[in-house]
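USER:
Working in pairs, take the chain set out below, taking as long as you need, and write a paragraph about the fold.
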Amino acid sequence: MTLPEGADAHFRALESLYAAAPVNRLFESRLEVPEAGVSRIHFAVDRRHFHAAGAAHGTAYFKMLDDAAFYAANSLVTDRFLLTTQFSLNLTRPLGEGPVVAEGRWISGQRRVFIAEARLIASDGEEVARGTGTFMRSRIALAGLPGYGTTT
């Protein structure tokens, strides 16, 4: 796969876009896009994210898996914002308080529809969840979104 012109600037702009999203005020998290088709979200689960039985609620799993897969796919698209059209989850272990990493990887698609997967890795190195999503190009220009910008 060939990288778009200014790929590194695009990756930093996506990181900025993630940080600017209002929903991320609910989660202590940070996105990194190290290369095309790959993303990592570092975040911390705390008791605010727990369900009644004392472990992370599925919303935390979904949010981080969807975001990691989404940004892995959108790292390949420099002009348009992608939209999640489908996402499947497998939760394999309860998640308690502490640091977690969501790792996203692009699987296929380069034009209109993209498929990407993500996994959640707990601080002990064990995978606690996995997800696969389908993402579609929207009509929304990345350059017009608050937070999307290049750093020089």
About this structure: The beta strands are 28-35, 38-45, 80-91, 98-108, 113-122, 127-141.
